[in-house]
Amino acid sequence: FPVTIKIQKVNLLKVDTQGYELHVFEGARNLMESDAICFILFEVCFAEIYKNAPSFDVLFRYLNERRFELVNIFEMHLIGQLAGWCDILMMNRTSVAQSKHQSKPLYHKD
Predict the structure, then answer these.
(1) Residue 77 clears pLDDT 60, i.e. is over it
(2) How far is CA 48 from CA 41, 67, 76, in A?
């Protein structure tokens, strides 16, 4: 999709695909490796809610190998007293660093 409409930069990729997050990440691999995605927000399950869903470790390592770092964990849902699922925000350290240097100030006083 991004290739056909020539998207050059994705500020936030939101992924909530009930256990198919790794498939989405693999589909966006070229965008990730070219630092075209700044942030990724995705749901991760710690319990076996979805059959054959990748673990947090697998998703984290996949993104970390593509220069993404953990920013925050949101809305932790418990199953009993154990972590069930939550949302994870990760940041591309290269993409965000480049954006800081290229952005123009909103207001400049002479």
Answers:
(1) yes
(2) 20, 27, 15
